[in-house]
Amino acid sequence: QVQLVESGGGVVQPGRSLRLSCAASGFTFSSYGMHWVRQAPGKGLDWVAVISYDGSNKYYADSVKGRFTISRDKSKNTLYLQMNSLRAEDTAVYYCGKDRYRSVLDWIDPWGQGTLVTVSS
Amino acid sequence: QSVLTQPPSASGTPGQRVTISCSGSSSNIGSNTVNWYQQLPGTAPKLLIYGNNQRPSGVPDRFSGSKSGTSASLAISGLQSEDEADYYCAAWDDSLNGHVFGGGTKLTVL
Q1: Which DSSP string corresponds to B1-64?
Q2: Nearest Cβ partner of B44 from A59, A107, A113?
């Protein structure tokens, strides 16, 4: 079955960097767009970024543009989110999710279990 | 505030039918399909409705979705206690070139 497992979260100081990973299994990773979505404590869902199945197209939320970079490694079936210049408002649980076949603008299914990022001094 | 507008809360008694609205604009709901996600307490979100009105396998037919113009709705009939959760609508936005979510609706089963 399809499985997505995020890792790399933790406590980081403002202004520092962190890289999240999402290990994918149970499907042909190189055929699907992949998303990052975050959820601040007690708040709603906030879409972060998406990368196309072949990595050629990437889209970002305005709030992270220029600071975060989404990428993927098909040899490792892994999705990444490089987060630089972190701010307190980036504190959230970060989820990865799979889009429809060869799409980036359809639906997210399934979602991983999430990894918590806390930005604090 | 969120690009898509949902009521923050909704409630109903067991067996009742409830609807949750989602309002957007021509650049998102008006030109793309709407999806709904269910988030049970303490868990990751789960796809509930895709493509405006399609149910993934395993989702009971008590859940249904619809779309008209720049608005969409999620209906839950035969409300059950296990339906108590947060519900989010979402769509691609052509102007923002990204996905947008509603602020979420907390459903309480009285």
Answers
A1: --SBB--SEEEE-TT--EEEEEE--TTTTTTS--EEEEE-TTS--EEEEBTTTBPPTTS-TTEE
A2: A113
User: Could A107 and B50 be called an inter-chain contact, meaning their C-beta atoms sit closer than 8 Å?
Assistant: yes
Option in A61, A62, A107 nearest B47 (CB): A107
DSSP single-letter state for residue B71? E
Residue B45 to residue B32: CA distance in whole angstroms? 21
The beta-carbon contacts of B96-100 under 8 Å, at least 24 apart in sequence, are: B96/A62, B96/B3, B96/B27, B97/A59, B98/A47, B98/A50, B98/A59, B98/A60, B98/A61, B99/A35, B99/A37, B99/A47, B99/A50, B99/A105, B99/A108, B100/A47, B100/B2, B100/B3, B100/B4, B100/B24, B100/B28
CA proximity to A68, closest of A83, A86, A80, A51? A83
Distance from CA of B35 to the nearest CA of A (A): 6
Whether residue A73 lies within 8 A of chain B, CB to CB, comes out as: no
Nearest to B101 among A46, A95, A107 (CB): A46
Mutation target vs A (from B74, B97, B99; most A CBs, 10 A cutoff): B99
What is the per-residue pLDDT across B60-106, written as a single tens digit (0 to 9) for each? 999 999 999 999 999 999 999 999 999 999 999 999 999 999 999 99
Summarised one tens digit per residue, pLDDT across range B38-59 is 999 999 999 999 999 999 999 9
